[in-house]
Amino acid sequence: QVQLVESGGGLVQPGGSLTLSCAASGFTFGGNSMSWYRQAPGKERELVAAISSTGSYTRYADSVKGRFTISRDNAKNTVSLQMNSLKPEDTAVYYCNAGWATARFPDYWGQGTQVTVSS
User: What's the pLDDT tens digit per position in 23-49?
Assistant: First the structure.
């Protein structure tokens, strides 16, 4: 059974930083690319960042490029998202899933972690 558990969200002021973490189980973590997605109220879920299975390659949405950094620890089956210079428009629920361009497990989303950027 695929399990994805996100954590690390919270309320932060504009310009602040947060680090999100995702613990994955139920599939071969080290054999899969991993991604972070977000969904803001009234909007569709969007891909924010992805990392290849070995961590050698990463990709980012234009809206977060230069501010967010995705990383992974294959020994711990975790993927992280370091978010700097946060903006109000980054406010959303953040989710992780396997895959590079699309979610490999579209029927297995975790509860997500809420990020709110507000003064």
Answer: 999 999 999 999 999 999 999 999 999
User: Could you write out the three-class secondary structure of the chain?
Assistant: CCEEEEECCEEECCCCCEEEEEEEECCCHHHCCEEEEEECCCCCCEEEEEECCCCCCEEECCCCCCCEEEEEECCCCEEEEEECCCCHHHCEEEEEEECCCCCCCCCCCCCCEEEEECC
Contact 58, 75 (CB under 8 A): no
Judge whether 79 and 23 are in contact, CB under 8 Å.
no
Q: What is the pLDDT of residue 67?
A: 98
Beta-carbon contacts of 110 under 8 Å, excluding residues fewer than 6 positions away, are: 3, 4, 5, 6, 22, 95, 96
